Amino acid sequence: MTQSPPLIDALRRLAGPRPDDRPDAELLARFVARRDADAFAALVLRHGRLVWGACRRRARDAHDAEDAFQTTFLAL
């Protein structure tokens, strides 16, 4: 893996953490408080595969799995 130039690292630190680097609790709080779409997207990206896998294992039908997946995130 190559290392970023020092200037790039400094700019990243100044910019603060990316939404996907924040803890789940902070992302969820941001979404609830401000309907932060970036925070929601980060949560879906982080947990979507896990939720999808659970839905596929439990559902008897692919359409039911899709509905369960969507319902999980709509419940937020």
Q: Which SSEs are present, and which pair or pack?
A:
Layout: H1 6-15, H2 24-34, H3 37-58, H4 62-74
Helix pairs in contact: 2-3, 3-4
General shape: elongated
Which regions contain 5 or more consecutive residues with pLDDT less than 50?
none
Residue share in β-strands: under 5%
What's the total number of strands?
0
Main sheet properties? none
- SSE arrangement, N to C: HHHH
Structural class, please? mainly alpha
**Helix residue percentage:** over 70%
The total of helices stands at 4
Radius of gyration, taken over Cα atoms and rounded to an integer in Å: 17 Å
Mean pLDDT across the residues is 84
Distance between the termini: 37 Å
List the quaternary state of the chains: single chain
Q: What would your notes on this structure say?
A:
The structure is a single chain. The protein is an all-alpha fold and 76 residues long. The protein is 74% helix and 0% strand. It is built from four helices and no strands. α3 (37-58) runs antiparallel to α4 (62-74). The longest helix is centred in the middle third of the chain and has 22 residues, at 37-58. The radius of gyration is 17 Å and the shape is elongated. The mean pLDDT is 84.
